């Protein structure tokens, strides 16, 4: 589904991604952890071409992103992304936030898009918040609307960039529960998070990044019990 082959990325002189080789299969849940500034967000943003890679090859869902003729709009329809800050439209209701892209991008008629949006709100556990505006929702509820909005485009891949980092602790669990359900339904997911419990329980694979490199990659059981690299051990000793 996603394949990085010897990918390098530079911001000017600064090399932010170094020789990234990574293959993610359909239905896999991959959690990326690592210190701040290690390139996690950049790696994620390359997958939907919010950032272009500088060297190497990246293909996503059979599209070669390094081909200048690649259909990026088509690609993005298949990829949902959820950010730390939910980026909901403040002047639209929860339901309108969710139905907007299906209406505008997929030309789904209003009634149908609204009905589907309601189903996604139910899926993320807040069917009663349809007509609430973002400011009337808690952080956890807003993030669940943002996930519903991503799902409404029926993506093949969901990317999550620290989806719970801006939330009060008591709201983290409700968002992780929605993500866990999605994983169980077989969604292909790439998740940057500091939630080690989630990584341990839900990930098929954990990737540790440091200074632009993938330093270590393993099953969660191996990764947490038997980290190979000294830097991984140091990082884990700080976050666990
Ligand atoms: P992480 O998500 O692991 O914290 P990022 O991918 O956001 O790391 O950033 C990795 C490094 O690249 C950081 O040093 C950051 O300052 C730098 N960086 C990120 N985006 C840009 C940009 N648009 N221009 C220049 N440098 C950037
Ligand atoms: Mg980041």
Automatic annotation (TrEMBL):
SUPFAM superfamilies: P-loop containing nucleoside triphosphate hydrolases
MF (Gene Ontology): ABC-type amino acid transporter activity; ATP binding; ATP hydrolysis activity
Protein keywords: ATP-binding, Nucleotide-binding, Transport
Keyword Metal-binding: no
SMART domains the record matches: AAA
Keyword Zinc: no
Family matches, as InterPro entries: AAA+_ATPase, ABC_ATPase_HisP-typ, ABC_transporter-like_ATP-bd, ABC_transporter-like_CS, MetN_ABC_transporter-like, P-loop_NTPase
One Pfam family it belongs to: ABC_tran
Record CDD domains: ABC_HisP_GlnQ (cd03262)
Residues in ABC transporter domain copies: 2-236
Assigned protein family: Belongs to the ABC transporter superfamily.
Name assigned to this protein: Amino acid ABC transporter ATP-binding protein, PAAT family
Organism: Marininema mesophilum
